[in-house]
Amino acid sequence: MKTVDKILALIRDTSSSLPEDVEKAILAAMRREEKHSSAKMILKTIIENCELARKNSTPLCQDTGTLTFFVDSRLRNKVNRKVISEATRLATVKGYLRKNCIDSLDGKSYDDNVAEGAPVIHYVESESKDSKPTVTLIMKGGGSENMSRQYSLPDSTLGAGRDLKGVEKCILDAVVKTQGYGCAPGILGVCIGGDRATGYEIAKEQLLRNLGDSSKDSCLAKMEKTILKKANSLGIGPMGLGGKTTLLGVKIASRPRVPASFFVTIAYMCWAARRRTVVI
Ligand code: SF4
To answer: How many domains would you assign to the chain?
Structure first.
């Protein structure tokens, strides 16, 4: 198979099929919700929608989102921008992607979803030389991206200081402010510290983690669990209409900061957490 066809297949599968861990989490949440509740009905509809999308290779949400590729740097020549752009163009023609990219100055559509800087491509160092080189794609819809937030501590409006309690207040505030938006249940990727730009970058990268994992740092792992539990006790529920499932997961990382700044950055992902990796 040619590389462009492999990337095309990656786009098709990412767009039409939820990752197994996310689908399982939605199914488990549906079973937990009260009989005949709107929460149960919404989650059931999401599951049915996912099954249909996979069967027909059609987008599982009409907003096919921003495409961000993480490419092993050893594939820099093979999986270059030309190859990814061509695969994106073909995916749009075949209907795996909606025409979803517009010029920010005049609002005109880039009908093939290809423009300067679109799709987004990151070349990343592989964790080990012996690993097989991979390409990972994440597709993030606008409704969920709009709900991502960055806080600067201290925050007097929240009574949040420059400590882990303050961090928790920011994260829970983001959950409350997202009520009714961003198609819950969602997943939070969080970065504690860093600067403004790397905060968003690292927070978004946490969305690539499997829902079943925990941070290797015991303090962050505890925080992930606590915040998930607290968020799901708020009663916000699927689509903000009430229920036990507001979040499917919380993934937190931390980065060093300068003494003068303390950012808490939250990348919010909706239930349509489309991510997939292929070995090239
Ligand atoms: S927030 Fe997510 S599920 Fe909702 S419309 Fe956007 S991409 Fe689709």
So the answer is: 1
